[in-house]
Every structure is written in C-alpha cells, then in structure tokens.
Amino acid sequence: SKISVVSIVGARPQFIKAFAVSRKLRTNHEEILVHTGQHYDEELSDVFFEELGIPEPDYNLGIGSDTHGQQTAAMIKEIESVIKLEDPDIILIYGDTNSTLAGAITASKIDSLVAHVEAGLRSYNREMPEEINRILTDHASDILFPPSESSANTLKEEGISENVHVVGDVMYDSILWARDISSEQSEILSRLNLEGKEYILSTIHRAANTDNPDRLNSIINALLDSPSTVVLPIHPRTENKLRSYDMWEKAKSGIEIIDPVGYLDFVRLIDESECVATDSGGVQKEAFYLDTPCITMRDETEWIETVESGWNVLVGADKERIQEELRTRHQPQEKPNPYGDGTAAIKIVDTLVSSINE
Ligand code: UD1
Ligand code: UDP
C-alpha cells in the first residue's frame, strides 16, 4: 500500500540526488519534501528546482549558513517538529552534509525509521567534516543504500549488515536523464565562447582546500599555468576565501571564473571538457559516467573505483602534480561499471515500500 516519506535535502548535490528518487516515489506514494535551507542562493538552490521540475518544498526551514554546531542544531530542532507533525512512515536522507546528519540524528532520537542513500562511503580522513557525517549517519540509519559492493563491504566491516541494499548510484540515474537534454538545450558553450574539448572544467569547494591558504594558492597557481583555458564555476565559499586571502584578482586574471551554473549547463560542461579538475565528490563520478578524465585535487577519495579504473587520479594540492596530470589524459581502454545501471531510484522506492509494508 501507499507509503509516506519525508525527504530531507539542503545542499546542491542533494537536490540532484533527490530529483531521481522523488519522481519515482511520487508516481504512487506520498512525499513531503523538506529543504533545510543550508544552500539558499538562487544558483545553489532554486535553479535546480526549476530545471529539474522538483516540486516546491513543503517545508523550507530557512536555516542558512552558520558554524557546524549552530547549523546542525537548528536543523535538528526544526526537523523534529516537522516529523512529529507529519508522522511519515520513513525519513529519507542523502549523502554526507550537515543536512544529512541532522535528519539522521533527529529521526533516530524520536524513533522514526530512517533510510540513507549513499551509505558506506569512507575517505578515512576524519578531519573531513563529511566523513564524520557519513559515519554517524550510517550508524543511525535503519535502511542503508550503498551505491557499490565496496561500500556495502565497508558497512559490513563496521558491523552493519542488516537492511543493506546495494542499489547503485542515484547520481547515475540523474545524469542519464540529463545528458541528452543538456546537449539539446544547454547554450553554455556558446555563452562562454568555448569550443568542445578545448577547455578544462574545474570546481573547488572542499574545506581542506578553501580554508587553507597554502593549498588554495597552490591549486590556483596550477590552474593559472594550465595548458588550456580553465573554466571555474565558483562556489561562494571559495570566492569568499579567495577575496579574504587577497587572491581574487590573481585568480580572475587567468582563470575563466563564472558564477555557479545549473545542472544541465554543468553536465554539458563536463561532457565537452578535455578533463575535469575538481575536489567535489559528485563531480568525480559524473566525469566518470561521461567518459571524461578526472583529476581530483584531494589526498583521498570515497569513490575509489573511479581511481582504480584509471579514469580518476588523486593529485592533492601540489602545484607540480596538478600540472603534470593536467597535461596527461587518463582515458583507459576499459571502463568498469561499479555503480549500478542507472536504476537506483526505482530500487530504492521498491525497497522502502516492501520494508514498510512487511
Ligand atoms: C556543503 C557540504 C559539503 C558539500 C557542499 C556541496 C557540509 C558540512 N558541507 O559545503 O559536503 O560538498 O555543501 O556544495 O554540509 N554560502 C553562500 N550561499 C549559499 C550557501 C553557502 O554564500 O547558498 C557560503 C556561506 O559563506 C557559507 C559557506 O558558503 O558559510 C559554506 O556553506 P556550507 O553549506 O556551510 O558548506 P559548503 O561548503 O557549501
Ligand atoms: N554542479 C552544478 N553546477 C555547478 C557545480 C556543480 O550543477 O556549478 C552539480 C554537479 O553536476 C553535481 C553537484 O552539483 O551534480 C555536485 O555538487 P558539489 O560539488 O557542490 O558537492 P559534492 O558532490 O562535493 O558534495
């Protein structure tokens, strides 16, 4: 029978993940969508609701930016009221942000069922705020949806083996939907005066890079000396830091810095780039799905299969390493398919329905 789900989202990548599940869920079931307000700028939030046709959130908690403690606490308080009011069959949370953790803690404290999409991922770097969010969320969840066999194994090693369902990656569902539409509709290349396969696409927003002036400076210097044009849709966090470190003018002088773009434009930019240089979690996978070589400006990754396959390479924040890899194209002959077949969303919905109706 029909189930009711409270889905909690708050940050850019969660809108893209929830989109895939939401459209399957809503064909037969009830979804109450909660936006925590963690991301609130038009280009980090509204744009995704509009272009993906995600229904208006039933609740926008309007939490906004703050210290991790203040932000997460405010979310917990508001989410608790919503869950008490709505009394859903289950809470659905995505990824590893503070919005994810807030949902997990709230649900487990009031004894509501909670399901985690993108479970079992680990960077094994505990200084990364997302790593703590992942661990705590997985251990507070009742149903876990790891995207790959390796992430299911990680859960097992941590003692979590019940109600674990390997469904594949929901972002794969999203990008399969977006790829053709974006190549028909997106005008981003002509808007930016770019030719396909003649530019490098970059994103930077990880705390370890933005909050460390040496690392950020080294990355910017590497991109400034890149062999091709570098297009950098900039996260507000990174712009703020570049300005406060007095590096903004230098960065603008040789990097094509643009405002963050919508999903369809971004998918188009990945698809047509020579290679991607990023510290994002989601963008590493999207490059992989679109057969675009990726350079990851981090010391470790949760998406190990992309590195093992040779399509992604970890370069940290070292200028020489980044530049060396910017000149190499990592496109092995073979590409494995560790993250499912792009039908994660329907598997998630079917599993939720059968778990609840049991
Ligand atoms: C958050 C997630 C991160 C995820 C990323 C996706 C946590 C701990 N981090 O990082 O895992 O990869 O989202 O993009 O949950 N800001 C704005 N406008 C906005 C939102 C943020 O200007 O709409 C600025 C504010 O100065 C804010 C800073 O960005 O302080 C950081 O925002 P926050 O949501 O705390 O973390 P992100 O870096 O976006
Ligand atoms: N993205 C986007 N516009 C941009 C940059 C990223 O639509 O200017 C999308 C990208 O396609 C991916 C998601 O945002 O689906 C990744 O989000 P982000 O890198 O902010 O977070 P992470 O995945 O690291 O948590």
UniProtKB/TrEMBL annotation:
<dbReference type="InterPro" id="IPR029767">
    <property type="entry name" value="WecB-like"/>
</dbReference>
<dbReference type="Pfam" id="PF02350">
    <property type="entry name" value="Epimerase_2"/>
</dbReference>
<dbReference type="InterPro" id="IPR003331">
    <property type="entry name" value="UDP_GlcNAc_Epimerase_2_dom"/>
</dbReference>
<feature type="domain" description="UDP-N-acetylglucosamine 2-epimerase">
    <location>
        <begin position="28"/>
        <end position="352"/>
    </location>
</feature>
<protein>
    <submittedName>
        <fullName>UDP-N-acetylglucosamine 2-epimerase</fullName>
    </submittedName>
</protein>
